[in-house]
Write a structure and sequence with these properties.
Strand content: 25-35%
Radius of gyration: 14 Å
Distance between the termini: 10 Å
Shape: globular
């Protein structure tokens, strides 16, 4: 997944994809996400939440890694990131999880709603 962004405006963030898919997994789909935030404070809160999620995900055994975060970038107050999906049924059931009520609570912590998101899915 690639974003066409002026490299002079991009601020890379900690999240980095795993070098190879988890053991026994094959990439099934990729999702690109952008979140437009209203200020730098909320942008940083969003980044911190993604980093914490990435840290927690990496603690799981490979057999439980059905998805992972891809590289995250920031341009102004917009956060761009991707999701790599390794399981078809998990992707089918979770690809729109960003719309559920539990996630809405997370977004409130950085001043966002699902309306701030642009999400595109692609099967590979």
């Amino acid at each position: 997944m690639q974003f066409v962004i002026d490299p002079n405006l991009v601020q890379p963030i900690l999240n980095q994809p795993l070098e190879t898919p988890p053991a026994g997994r094959t990439l099934y789909a990729q999702t690109s996400v952008s979140i437009v935030l209203n200020d730098g404070v909320n942008r940083q809160k969003c980044i911190d939440a993604l980093i914490q999620s990435d840290i927690e995900l990496r603690k799981r055994p490979d057999s439980y890694k059905l998805w992972e975060w891809d590289v995250t970038h920031v341009v102004g107050n917009t956060v761009f990131f991707g999701v790599s999906w390794y399981d078809r049924s998990f992707f089918d059931s979770r690809k729109n999880a960003f719309l559920n009520t539990a996630h809405q609570g997370y977004y409130a912590a950085f001043g966002a709603t699902a309306g701030n998101f642009t999400v595109r899915h692609a099967l590979v």
